[in-house]
Amino acid sequence: MASRRDAPAGPAPVVVASGLTRLYAVSEREAGLAAALRSVLRRSVRQVRAVDGVTFEVGPGEIVGFLGPNGAGKTTTLKMLAGLLHPTEGRAEVLGHAPAERRPEFLRQITLVTGQRSQLQWDIPAADSFELHRAVYRIPPARYRRILADLDAMLDLGPLLGKPVRNLSLGERMKCEVAAALLHEPRVLFLDEPTLGLDVVAQRRIRSFLADYNRRTGATILLTSHYMADVQALCRRVIVIHHGRLLFDGLLEALAGRLLPHKVIVVQPSDPAADLRPYGEVTERAPGEVTLRVPRAAAPAVAARILAEVAVDDVSILDPPIEDVVEQIFSAGRAPESGAGLRP
Amino acid sequence: MIEALRLFAAFVRVAVHREVAYRANLVAQTVQSVVGLGTALGGLAVVFAHTATLAGWPPSELVALVGVFQMVGGAIGFAIQPAMQRLMEEVRTGALDFTLLQPADSQVLVSVREVSVYRLTDVALGAALLGAALARLGARLGPGRIAAFTLALAAGGAVVYAVWLALATCAFWWVRVDNVLVIFETLYDAGRWPVSIYPGWLRGALTFLIPVALATSVPVEALTGALRGRTLALAAVVAAAALVLSRLLWRAGLRAYSGASG
Q1: Is residue B178 within a helix (H) or strand (E), and if so which, with residue range?
Q2: Domain shared by A83 and A148, yes or no
Q3: Contacts of B13 by beta carbon, 8 Å cutoff, 6+ apart
Q4: Which domain holds residue A309?
Q5: Does residue A166 belong to the interface with chain B, where contact is any CB pair within 8 Å?
Q6: I want to staple B91 with a disulfide (CB 3.0 to 4.6 A). Which of A212, B169, B171, B229 is the partner?
Q7: pLDDT tens for residues A235-245?
Q8: A242-256, A289-303, B198-212: which range is least confident on average?
Q9: In a shared domain, residues A207 and A168
Q10: Are residues A297 and A203 in the same domain?
Q11: Given this model, what pLDDT does residue A9 score?
C-alpha cells in the first residue's frame, strides 16, 4: 500500500482505518403530495455506501489532507475517526482507542473543528464558552491560563473574547472556534473545512496557525478542505476519496502524476506565429508562450519532435497544476477512468 | 452525581454572568410570576366562595399546593426546560456532535448546560407562599414531615426530569418534537389542583403516566401529614424506575443518532 510506504517508518500510527465502511439508509420519495402521503405508510429505503472499504494509517505529527468532491465520504470518514459514527464494517483506531466507544480518556485527546457548525454559543462571549470548556475538560487553572496566553499570542484573540460571539465576523469567530477546540491541548485534530467561507487573509492566518501548532506540539492533523491552498500549505500527504473509495494516498506532488493521464508541455517558439496544434491540444496561448496537453507516455517523444521540427527558445515538460487534478476529481462523474488501477 | 453538580455550578455561574446584563428580563419575569400567582390564588378564592373544602382539601392546604406548584414549575423552567429545548435544537442542527465529543457523561452534560436564571423568581415566590400557607395552617412540622416532604419533592422532581428527558430524546427519531413538550406543559397545569378532584382514569394518568401529581399533590400531603408511608415509598420507586427508563431511552437515542447523522 502506498500509505505504508509513504508514512514515516518506526513510530506506531496514531490513526488507523482498516476497511472502514459506512452505509446510510436513505429514505426516498418522489416530490409531490401524493408521494408524501404514500411515504407515510411505506417508505422506500435505499442503502448508500458513503465510505467503502477505506484503509490508511497516519503517523504521529503528520498533517494529512483529505480531497474529494462533495459527498465523497470525507466528512463521514472524519466522523467515524472522531467517534461520532459507528463504522458499519471495518475498523477505526485512534490513539489506540476504538473512537465510537467515546471513552473520556480518548475524547480528552482529540478535537473536531468544522467550518459549518459552531461549538461556541452565540449569545455569550467566547471567554464564557472557554470557561465552560475548562470546566468540562477539568483543565487546572494555571495550565488553562498558560494555554490561553499561548493561543492569544498566536491568534491575537484578546479583543475578541469579551464580545458576544454573534457580534464577531466570520474570520474572528473562526479564530475563537479553533482556540476553543485546542484549549485541552488535543493530540489529534480533525478539521472539516476549517477555512470555509473565510477571506484570503483569514484563511492564511488559520493556516499558518495550524502549521505552527503542528510544529510546536507535534499534534497529528487530519484536514478536509475545498481550498487547494489549504492543502498545499499544510499537507505533504493527501488522501483522495471519491464515491466513498480511496483513490489515492501519497505525497501531494505525486498526485498529478498518478491521477491525470496527461502532461503539459510549455513551448516558447522563436516565431510567435508558429503553429503547434499538430503536436497536441493547445490549452493556453500567451504572448511568446504556448501550452500543450499531451498524453503522459508520449510527452518525451512529442517534446523531441518539437525541438527537431520547430525553432524554439525553450521547451519544458511539466505535471499539470494541482488545481487541474483536483478539478478533474471534483467534477463528479468524470473521475479518472482508470481509477481502480491507480491504487498501487 | 458530584460531577453533575460541579458542571451544573459552572453553567449556572456563566448564565448568571450573562443574565445580569439583561435586568429588564428580571422585571418582566417577576411581573409574570406575580400575575401567575395572583390568577391561581384568585381561582382558589372563587372556588372557596362556594365550598369550604375541595375534595377534602381546606383553603390553606390548597394555597400550599399552589406554592409547591409554583416552585416546581419554576424549577422546571429554571433548569430542565431550557436544557431540553437546547438538546432538541442541537439534534436538529447537528450541533450535538460537539457535546458528544466532550469527555463527560453526555446525559449529564445535556441536562445541566442551559439554565434560565430568572425563573428562580417563581421558586422564591412559591416558597414564600408555601411558608405563609403553612404558618396559617399552624401545621406542626416535625423533622419527619420535613424529611417526607423533601423526599417527595425530590422524587417528584426526578420523575418530571425523566419525563422531559424522555420526551426530548424522541427528537433522535422524530427530529421535531416541540409539540410533544406542549402536551407536558398542559398536563403539568393540571397539577395546580389536588389530584383527587379528577376522575379516576385521569388521576391514574396524572400519577403514573405523566406523574404530575407526584411533584405537587404528594409533597403537600407530606407536609400536612395526609401522606401515607406506602404512597411515599411508591413515589420513590416510581422515581427510580423513571430515571432508569429515561437513561435507557437516552442510550438508545444516542445509538440512533450516531446511526443516522450525516
Answers
A1: helix B178-189
A2: yes
A3: none
A4: 257-342
A5: no
A6: B171
A7: 999 999 888 99
A8: B198-212
A9: yes
A10: no
A11: 55
Contact B14 A124 (CB under 8 A): yes
Q: Residues A174, A247: one domain?
A: yes
A218/A145 same-domain check? yes
In this predicted model, what pLDDT tens digit does every residue of B180-211 receive, in sequence order? 778 788 888 888 888 888 888 888 788 767 77
Distance CA B125, CA B78 (A): 14
Mutation target to probe the A interface, by most A beta carbons within 10 A, among B98, B173, B257 is B98
Cβ distance A128 to B17 less than 8 Å, yes or no, reads yes
Residue A107's pLDDT is 96
Contact residues, A window 80-119, toward B, CB-based 8 Å cutoff: 82-86, 100, 102, 104-105, 107-108, 110-112, 114, 117-119
Q: Do A292 and A151 lie in a common domain?
A: no
CB-based contact B52:B58 (threshold 8 Å) = yes
Task: Count the Cβ atoms, other than its own, within 10 Å of residue A173.
Answer: 21
**Nearest by CB to B10, which of A76, A118, A135?**
A135
Tally of domains in chain A: 2
Which pLDDT score is estimated for A330? 66
Residues A226 and A205 in one domain: yes
Of A233, A255, A277, the residue at which a domain comes to its end is A255
Closest to B188 measured CA to CA, from B200, B205, B175: B205
**Domain-terminating residue out of A255, A289, A323:** A255
pLDDT value at A329 more than 70: no
Helices (H), chain A: 2-6, 33-41, 74-82, 104-107, 126-137, 141-155, 170-182, 200-217, 228-234, 252-259, 299-309, 322-330
Same domain (yes/no): A79, A123: yes
Summarize the confidence of residues B77-88 as an average pLDDT.
92
pLDDT, mean of residues A200-224:
92
Q: Which of B243, B257, B262 lies closest to B99, judged by CA? A: B257
Task: Give contacts of A104 with chain B, Cβ < 8 Å.
Answer: 103-104
For strand A110-114 and strand A188-192, is the pairing parallel, antiparallel, or unpaired? parallel
